[in-house]
Amino acid sequence: MIGMAVVGYGYWGPNLVRNIADTPGVQLLTVCDLQPERLASVKGRYPAVTVTSDYEELLRDPRIHAIAIATPVSSHFRLAMSALMAGKHVFVEKPITPSAEEAQRLVDEAERRGLVLAVDHTFVHTSAVRKMRELVGSELGDIYYYDSVRVNLGLFQHDVSVIWDLAVHDLSIIDYVIPEKPVAVSATGVSHVAGEPENIAYLNLFFESNLIAHIHVNWLAPVKLRRTLIGGSRQMIVYDDLEPSEKIKVYDKGITLTGGQPLQGGKDVYQMMVGYRTGDMRAPHLDVVEALGSEIREFLHCIEHNGTPVADGQAGLRVVSVLEAATRSLAQRGRVMELQPARRVA
Amino acid sequence: MIGMAVVGYGYWGPNLVRNIADTPGVQLLTVCDLQPERLASVKGRYPAVTVTSDYEELLRDPRIHAIAIATPVSSHFRLAMSALMAGKHVFVEKPITPSAEEAQRLVDEAERRGLVLAVDHTFVHTSAVRKMRELVGSELGDIYYYDSVRVNLGLFQHDVSVIWDLAVHDLSIIDYVIPEKPVAVSATGVSHVAGEPENIAYLNLFFESNLIAHIHVNWLAPVKLRRTLIGGSRQMIVYDDLEPSEKIKVYDKGITLTGGQPLQGGKDVYQMMVGYRTGDMRAPHLDVVEALGSEIREFLHCIEHNGTPVADGQAGLRVVSVLEAATRSLAQRGRVMELQPARRVA
Amino acid sequence: MIGMAVVGYGYWGPNLVRNIADTPGVQLLTVCDLQPERLASVKGRYPAVTVTSDYEELLRDPRIHAIAIATPVSSHFRLAMSALMAGKHVFVEKPITPSAEEAQRLVDEAERRGLVLAVDHTFVHTSAVRKMRELVGSELGDIYYYDSVRVNLGLFQHDVSVIWDLAVHDLSIIDYVIPEKPVAVSATGVSHVAGEPENIAYLNLFFESNLIAHIHVNWLAPVKLRRTLIGGSRQMIVYDDLEPSEKIKVYDKGITLTGGQPLQGGKDVYQMMVGYRTGDMRAPHLDVVEALGSEIREFLHCIEHNGTPVADGQAGLRVVSVLEAATRSLAQRGRVMELQPARRVA
Amino acid sequence: MIGMAVVGYGYWGPNLVRNIADTPGVQLLTVCDLQPERLASVKGRYPAVTVTSDYEELLRDPRIHAIAIATPVSSHFRLAMSALMAGKHVFVEKPITPSAEEAQRLVDEAERRGLVLAVDHTFVHTSAVRKMRELVGSELGDIYYYDSVRVNLGLFQHDVSVIWDLAVHDLSIIDYVIPEKPVAVSATGVSHVAGEPENIAYLNLFFESNLIAHIHVNWLAPVKLRRTLIGGSRQMIVYDDLEPSEKIKVYDKGITLTGGQPLQGGKDVYQMMVGYRTGDMRAPHLDVVEALGSEIREFLHCIEHNGTPVADGQAGLRVVSVLEAATRSLAQRGRVMELQPARRVA
After folding, report:
1. Which chains are adjacent to chain B, needing at least 3 Cβ pairs under 8 Å?
2. Within 13 Å of residue A304, how many CA atoms lie on the same side as its CB?
3. pTM for the whole thing?
């Protein structure tokens, strides 16, 4: 039986607590938060759980093998690092840290100590995203583009721009679904509230192949949209996360290239060479599962079997590296920022 | 009675011919094309119309007051310039020319001679786009962003990239709907057919205010999308051109800013200051009109009353200037290209 | 402070318990159920609440002023009647009883004792249905028709047909939204599981005016649909309960009748007389409220101020009367069944 | 080369004329109409075609082998019968005649003379409806229900009710798609314009098996809907004719029945026995064809090879028989009308 603690009982913490409490093989021992009324709320619902406002208590408790961190991003590094140094496995909310440098240090520390470091990239545990990964690796053929729109009204944040709040989801999905890693990023965006970070932004991810990825995020849209297109050489996907059941549609569509070089003489000649192929569309059945529960189970499994989570510290680091570079690009009207290949610990 | 001729009876020419033939106050005299079978087709449908493969005949005919040009873009400049020099008014397909320099010369020539030079920016004559212009100038308040998605499968062209084929529509709509003119543009995109122009592209338009415009065009999408979001400080628009009747939806939504400076202490404090306002949505009734017919009538009216079409040569020039700069940016992974303010003829 | 108890902690009971526990001015004292594990679940979540499997305890407890009944329909009459006879106010799940005769007896008993008898017609407490009632009484003009489609896959029941499970919602909405009461009903339907009640059915409601109402319910549909059309002489409504935010759309559409008698000579003459009017569509903003919470508050308010709930016993009786007559009609391939006007207690 | 004539150049006639003119193997010789301006319009477009207002000319002309009839329904019988008696093959608009008795006489006459009698049930020549027939005969399993909604605003007619105008489409589709023939029909409906036929109606078709079909037609709806559900024991279809490309969606969904007899004890026990099966959805690719052109080609093919059209006179007769019975039922608030099995000519 693995013992766990949760630090942070604000917006997302209660979901973590509920899922841990409902998962067999793990015992939720302690919840830590600075606000007394939140601790009282925990106590009311989970009388057997210890509550505390002192994070050090968690670190000292030998029955606690793992800590889940659901505090504001600015505190992730400090809390996660001290947990690792105390020998605890760590499950941390996304984004893993506010900087790639900090993420790298957490990755290194976890590797050195042989501890599991998991990042809560929730979407990669959904049936829809898992299905996309499966299709990308098989039926779609070569991947041509990935285009995501993630817009709605609110919630404006004043410490980070919309890319840290919304694009982080797309970046973690791309990291999981697309085997190739981006080599550069650019971003443009605007703030419509004086003195505040960008509330609308567009990101381009560049790859060594002719794959292109693009992300549109917006806190000031009149309608909520969550729609991704993935174009492959053989098939294409439309993923609409707001569809109640048919979230993934796979189109047997594309172009076929025939003939040799285009002759002079214009459009007509060329159009003989690019043909359009249109077949069936299908929406594969997706199981209904709560992603967070499956994440917790995977985390426990990794602890017990010395495994690596699909969203490990390296994944968290890769996503933060892109966010950081995109933020720099945003300040320079879309100047292209090269991305470093992930460093390997020797 | 104004006498007109049409040159080019390929893809779009038949629509022009039909609309001119159906418009009172104008007489369709001659249709010119290089392919004999097309001329035979004209003769079959419009026995009273003269057909010719010799463009010079049109220029010499004193009964012809105006010429509509529906040939490939590469020939627009030569045909339009010789028509203007022969004293004919000109109605030319979009884009007006392949380069801003040529467009400028046509504009200058038309102005010097007092002739009408109209560009077929069809969308600016639709009820939906006219309604958006009306709303942008009134109920929407300050304009925050303009975001358009125009994607489908095909038709690949081999002489121009997707931005000359699809983004030209968005640029002409923006030119008409948004009073402010862009000061810079950037574009990224990829070709997925070796040796061919980009078939997917993303454009950013920058303005002096904090307005941002973005256009996504794609010839390789599994679904057809034609959806524009316009965000204003008071109201917002969703324009879906594929909706059969409710193309324009106006949302009484937005943010309200209250309170003074954000205090230190994070998210909670700030969220008191950005409020979210949600009111009714309405879809204004739009008249069903064929845009091209209304364009022809406007063109005739301008000839008779010495007027200026809403899509005149200057509009055509502005759109081509952006396309040209975007093409240069495309070759440099989205480097920002400054746009020259439109030159005024002294 | 009003004291309440809940009997039945199966499918719907937990929602009732949660809403009562969250409502100020009422104290949830006791939950009664026959299954010990359900009572344990209540105890886990609400340690202060008494649990029992003996309904008589509730009746004897003088601190309990009102009882909410969320048990299977077949037990509603017995539990509600004994509650009323013990002087308790009653809040009962829909349908109120399996027969009009029993409903009438509950209505009579409650009236005799001056107790509040409320039926959980949940939809009449939603923002969407309240908005429809408001529109029906004003902008729509004369009401021409009411057409509802309520279909999905499952859940098959074996004691009642689909009309008792799904059409009951539409009947309670019609009862609330449409001032005129039906005078007759017919129903057709089929069972596709041998020996089981109908899983697909169509109901017609007839009125003295030329209003017609129609309900399509189906447990065996491949997609979930919840869509109602209401036609009025001046405006019309489309109500789609599955829309996340624009559930109600009001169309300024209709016909205009002009001219005198139709002359002989056919269609052309007549079409001058029926004109079609098409104006704006609007989706009024709807507040997001949990209907059940607002029902509980209304129930308490009625107890305290001797008021009548919008869905009182009479409403429950009217709905059950239609269900009963429809069930008889179903067995006779749609024979029209006249409905008795609601009896008034002298 | 088959010679054809068309009588009636009003609403639908021009489509017929255009399709006949475009079809190889047939020569359009004559168009007949009573209105001179319509004949002038034909002459302008098709200078080689003879025009006349005298139907007898068509009957006398030996070069004319077949006549297409696109006049008002009330004249169909007279025109078709005289054409058949003159030895001409007949292609007649739907509905074939205003009464089953007249339809039967046409069927008999055509059979006696060995002439082709085709009815323009356009939908049975669309890719979508052909695909449905194919699926109904194979993957769907036993057919449980057919439910169609066909509503819009207008066009009101004053000589026939909405069922003759709109339900005729559904009846012809059902006749083609569903192998089993209905044994009885009932219909309810209302007129909202004094003295005029019903503008909203609901039809039930009863079959010997436990199949049920239902049709909702309405001239006074705020939105246009064209949606059919077909439930089968193995798969189910949603057919939305307004979808631009995915008109047919096939759901691998249904119920599975397991276990023996329902035990006493209610819902829980039974629910173990009805299981719900949910698999993929797919939208089969449909070819884009103009139905009317393919009808004309089939008609010619039947003439040349002594074949029977899919929508022959018998199909026209079956549809009119249902319309006639439904009209009688409409006048009696949905009284069930038995249908005669189609008479066979000895």
Report:
1. A, C, D
2. 11
3. 0.94
